[in-house]
Amino acid sequence: MTHPSPPDTVDVTVQRAFAVPAERVFDAWLTPRLLGQWMFGPDVREEKLLRLDVDPRVGGRFSMLVERGGERIDHVGEYLVIDRPHRLSFTWTIAGEADQDGSRVDIAITPTSTGCELRLVHTLPRAWADYAGRTQQGWSTMLDALHAVF
């Protein structure tokens, strides 16, 4: 009997409700001033935000450079889908790290009677499966910080 091979990827899912319109939550992902308030920096964790470059168009790239524990970490990616205010997809890697092909973040924002709900799915390559828990915790922390912005 043959066993199906494990999938090449692992999905990490985080959901959060917001009491503001979908447009405001969507824009917080693409506006550098807002990104610096909730995704990175001292308000989110022990780190310093050094640079934030965002080119918010399909095919555009972003670079978010932080200093954490004396180490510089550059989170980079490319925007794949920008459908305001409902969907946003982008690749997500750390510059210089290997084995990250296939790391992708898909965000769906659904309007509700009290605001909106955001569902984030971060697809990780199988090689990074051990980081799934940390990845989920990281996105949860950031979405809590985003919640606090509003």
Structural commentary:
The mean pLDDT is about 90. The chain has one domain: START domain (Alpha-D-Glucose-1,6-Bisphosphate, Chain A, domain 4), CATH 3.30.530. Strands 1, 2, 3, 4, 5, 6, 7 and 8 form an 8-stranded antiparallel β-sheet that branches. A hairpin with a 6-residue loop joins strand 2 and strand 3. By secondary structure, the chain is an alpha+beta fold. It contains 3 helices and 8 strands. It is about 20% helix and about 45% strand. Belongs to the AHA1 family.
Helix content percent band: 10-25%
**C-alpha geometry:** globular
* Total of domains: 1
Count all strands and give the number.
Answer: 8
Family: Belongs to the AHA1 family.
Pfam families: AHSA1
InterPro entries: ASHA1/2-like_C, START-like_dom_sf
Protein name: ATPase
Task: Please describe the topology of this protein.
Layout: E1 9-18, H1 22-27, H2 32-38, E2 48-54, E3 61-68, E4 71-83, E5 87-91, E6 93-94, E7 104-112, E8 115-125, H3 132-149
Antiparallel strand pairs: 1-8, 2-3, 3-4, 4-5, 4-6, 5-7, 7-8
Domain Activator of Hsp90 ATPase homologue 1/2-like C-terminal: 20-149
Family: Belongs to the AHA1 family.
Protein name: ATPase
